[in-house]
């Protein structure tokens, strides 16, 4: 199924190079058809490399930008236990960013370059992080809905055909399960708390529900890259398929929370055996993606500020290492 | 209750989003805590709270007052360090400073939980519902983060001090203080290493980084004497073997920090020592702002559980 994506070999290649390319493509096609793994040194089509780089770097950026809406509540967390959990969670996200940048580096792009692209506004990240966290309950809703949606997206990626990506996802998914659980726990506690706390929880669920459904990406008919990614065994299920599964799980869990989802149209379609949800405002999604969300410029500015304020520290570390090496050589 | 078509969805226990729905009770079971990753049988604040509840431990007024001091130091520093997460010079430092903040907060939670047992108060009662003059943190811990060099200079002093303190407290006649400290000292040992490495790098890096670390030390050094100050409380507790006099930790602190400073070719700043007073409730201007931010939500909902 991958052979239909064969790239035409550029004419300027020598016969030996052409032969190598053809052998590489044959190896790649066999690996994909066996549902096995491509490793960094293996030959791979340029488009496969490009697609992966785009996806993994976007994913890494999402982890890094995603630290901000939650870091927003670290200093104000209402109990020391919650503060401690939240710190650990945001710290995990930095770790996820690191694994993912490392995985992307195996495809030939440096972390510095990816960071520059992010700061320059050239790279994308999950657009949900452009919404503000205005109450403590948002920590619960992000964990439960946003991390929940992320897990649905990411569990199948543990089997992605590109080895470093799949392996990074295994670790990330383990930690994300904790994150989702702590979000659920925050909402459960609020829902069983005072009327003001319960109201806070419901308000947060109302605000994060639709954006979290849109995390799965546009509807299948409007998602041009999905088909190719599925053929390459990077993506395993379509956007709508994953979204439907997610809705089904949330329907069940929201009842335990004693809260409601702000969607009257949720139903289980007995014919298709799939969960269905109400219409989503894809215009808003596109607006936020295009930079017109409430926090787009704030998020990038924070990253730029941290990066630029830290430049002298990174330079110092490099200079120190160089000087130490010189000393050792001289000795 | 089962969700249709989930068979190929869960891979060997990873990525579970079941959230334990079937057994989830309304009280939010502590066993589901994301931070419950302490290896072995290390003491957690929850364990101390349980011992208190069972009536197995109760500190004397003196011990409680003392635990309050150390707990407040850690709490205020964690509050400061937590601000770095998502703002550090590189991702590795977001993680490292976050880790140090978490360790400090963990120690603080244990000490405050224990202190609170003397007065029927929880760690959160003490953290969120005391006013400025009731805090017992030393001024060093309240100092602003400044740039990365200031944070490192502050952390360097703190971790070399805490290492000596917790090493001594691990032999305390008070078993709870000893147990908390025995765990803390292992973590603080890493903090020492982290800050010492950065002192060396910044001092021996570029002209700019050297200038900044010199300035950083100048800003925080006035608050060193206060942490080694003896008073009536520490005298009584030292006589009982609960702790040692803070002044007795100074020589080793000076020796070990001096070694790193010498290697970094840095001078101990010749700055006047501040009068301090944190242990008596006399604080910097900074503490009010720290508390305002830390306490705002909890105070909006008094009596609420989170």
Please tell me about this protein's structure.
The complex is a heterodimer of chains A (331) and B (306). Chain A starts with 14 loop residues before the first helix and ends with a helix. Chain A contains twelve helices and two strands, in the order H-H-H-H-H-H-H-H-H-E-E-H-H-H. The longest helix of chain A has 29 residues, at 163-191. Chain A is 66% helix and 2% strand. In chain A, strands 1-2 form a two-stranded antiparallel ribbon. The relative contact order of chain A is 0.10. Chain B is mainly alpha-helical and 306 residues long. Chain B is globular. The interface between A and B is large, with 83 and 74 residues.
The CA-CA distance between the termini of chain A, in Å, is 60 Å
End-to-end Cα distance of chain B:
28 Å
The helix-strand sequence of chain A is: HHHHHHHHHEEHHH
- Strand segment tally of chain A: 2
User: Regarding quaternary structure, how should these chains be classified?
Assistant: heterodimer
pLDDT < 50 stretches of chain A: 1-6
Report the C-alpha radius of gyration of chain B, rounded.
21 Å
Number of E strands of chain B: 0
Order of helices and strands of chain B: HHHHHHHHHHHH
Helical region count of chain B?
A: 12
């Amino acid at each position: 199924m991958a052979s239909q994506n064969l790239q035409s070999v550029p004419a300027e290649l020598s016969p030996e190079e052409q032969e190598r390319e053809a052998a590489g493509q044959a190896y790649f096609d066999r690996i994909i058809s066996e549902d096995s793994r491509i490793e960094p040194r293996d030959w791979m089509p340029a488009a496969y490399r490009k697609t992966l780089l785009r996806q993994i770097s976007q994913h890494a950026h999402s982890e890094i930008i995603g630290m901000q809406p939650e870091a927003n509540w670290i200093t104000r967390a209402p109990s020391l236990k919650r503060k401690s959990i939240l710190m650990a969670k945001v710290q995990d996200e930095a770790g996820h960013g690191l694994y993912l940048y490392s995985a992307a580096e195996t495809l030939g792009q440096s972390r510095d370059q990816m960071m520059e692209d992010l700061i320059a506004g050239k790279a994308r990240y999950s657009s949900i992080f452009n919404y503000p966290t205005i109450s403590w309950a948002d920590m619960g809703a992000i964990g439960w809905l946003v991390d929940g949606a992320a897990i649905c997206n990411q569990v199948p990626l543990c089997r992605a055909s590109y080895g470093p990506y799949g392996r990074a996802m295994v670790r990330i998914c383990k930690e994300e399960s904790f994150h989702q659980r702590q979000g659920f726990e925050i909402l459960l506690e609020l829902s069983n708390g005072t009327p003001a706390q319960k109201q806070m929880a419901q308000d947060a669920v109302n605000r994060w529900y639709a954006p979290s459904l849109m995390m799965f990406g546009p509807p299948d008919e409007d998602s041009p890259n999905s088909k190719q990614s599925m053929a390459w065994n990077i993506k395993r299920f379509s956007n709508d398929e994953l979204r439907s599964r997610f809705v089904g799980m949330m329907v069940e869990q929201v009842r335990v929370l004693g809260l409601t989802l702000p969607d009257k149209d949720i139903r289980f379609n007995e014919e298709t055996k799939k969960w269905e949800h109400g219409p989503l405002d894809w215009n808003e999604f596109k607006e936020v993606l295009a930079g017109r969300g409430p926090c787009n410029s704030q998020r990038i500015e924070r990253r730029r500020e941290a990066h630029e304020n830290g430049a002298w520290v990174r330079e110092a570390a490099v200079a120190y290492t160089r000087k130490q090496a010189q000393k050792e050589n001289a000795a | 209750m089962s969700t249709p078509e989930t068979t190929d969805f869960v891979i060997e226990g990873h990525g579970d989003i079941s959230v334990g729905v079937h057994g989830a009770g309304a009280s939010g079971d502590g066993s589901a805590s994301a931070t419950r990753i302490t290896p072995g049988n290390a003491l957690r604040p929850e364990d101390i709270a349980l011992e208190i509840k069972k009536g197995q431990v109760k500190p004397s007024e003196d011990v409680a007052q003392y635990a309050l001091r150390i707990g407040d130091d850690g709490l205020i520093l964690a509050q400061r360090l937590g601000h770095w997460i998502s703002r550090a010079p590189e991702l590795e430092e977001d993680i490292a400073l976050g880790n140090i903040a978490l360790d400090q907060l963990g120690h603080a939670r244990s000490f405050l939980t224990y202190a609170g047992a003397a007065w029927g108060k929880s760690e959160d009662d003490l953290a969120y519902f005391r006013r400025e003059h009731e805090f017992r943190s030393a001024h060093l811990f309240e100092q602003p983060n400044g740039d990365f060099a200031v944070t490192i200079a502050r952390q360097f002093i703190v971790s070399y001090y805490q290492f000596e303190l917790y090493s001594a407290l691990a032999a305390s006649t008070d078993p709870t203080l000893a147990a908390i400290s025995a765990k803390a000292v292992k973590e603080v040992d890493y903090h020492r290493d982290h800050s010492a490495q950065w002192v060396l790098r910044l001092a021996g890096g570029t002209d700019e980084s050297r200038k900044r670390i010199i300035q950083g030390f100048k800003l925080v050094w006035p608050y060193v004497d206060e942490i080694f100050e003896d008073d009536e409380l520490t005298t009584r507790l030292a006589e009982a073997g609960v702790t040692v006099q803070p002044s007795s930790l100074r020589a080793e602190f000076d020796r070990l920090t001096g070694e790193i400073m010498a290697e970094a070719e840095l001078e101990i700043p010749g700055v006047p020592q501040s009068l301090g007073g944190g242990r008596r409730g006399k604080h910097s201007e900074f503490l009010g702002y720290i508390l305002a931010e830390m306490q705002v939500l909890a105070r909006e909902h008094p009596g609420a559980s989170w």
